[in-house]
Amino acid sequence: MSTRHQHTTSQDTSAEGRLGRLFVRTWSPETPSNLAPIVLLHDSLGSVELWRGFPSALCKATGRQVVAYDRLGFGKSDPHPGTLALDFIASEAEGDFATVLRALGIQRFIVFGHSVGGGMAVNCAAHHGAACVALITESAQAFVEDRTVEGLEDARALFKDPGQVDRLKRYHGEKARWVLDAWIESWLAPAFASWSLRPVLPQVDCPALVIHGVDDEYGSPVHPALIVELSGGPALLQLMADTRHVPHREREADVVAMVRAFLEPLP
Q1: Which H or E run contains 186?
Q2: Closest by alpha carbon to 137, among 53, 45, 236, 229?
Q3: Distances (CA, A) of 1 to 68, 117, 136, 224
Q4: Is residue 239 within 8 Å of 107, Cβ to Cβ?
Q5: What is the pLDDT of residues 170-189, one digit of tens each?
């Protein structure tokens, strides 16, 4: 695929969900196309702004529109009215994700999820099977592993420093403490310990690209291996050496190239 798309434009909008307004940003290539757009799902502390330059780079490289949104309670979206339900990973497919698809009139899509967003992306691909052209997971957890728990315990200790919470406020404002609790308390809840993607993965029948850093502090390479093994469609595993939990930031050009090559033959 040509890299002729040297410029992108971005537009901010909103989508009205059942429980509040969602902030949405769309990057469009200089030359419009009928290719399925890429919808990004952020991680547990993430937001549209925290994707930084990655969406624009994806748009330029693939010639596809790229869409990112702040889940309810995150970034510039409205505050969440309560605590995060423990089925939040599975329910995203019928919740905020479906709201954004309807608001933008998206009929076909590629879903790309980072970390917990990867688990959500698996559920979105399974739930919206006929519309999902491809699934891309990056640093996705497939179950709750000892390494996951240890990483969360380390994060809990780190965020006892008020300065770390202040850093979150740059992106989430006064919702920062809710965002932090939604991450740590959900994943460390005893009732969440048995959570797994195993039941839903066989329902995914589109092509999948599974990206994972070998040194990911929140999940060993067992996670991507399980996603590839159980996915109902053809799946490609890309393990990245000397890479931790955020490959698209640590090695952006490499991740963009992987995604570009994977999507090139797809509509």
Answers
A1: helix 176-188
A2: 236
A3: 23, 27, 19, 27
A4: no
A5: 999 999 999 999 999 899 99
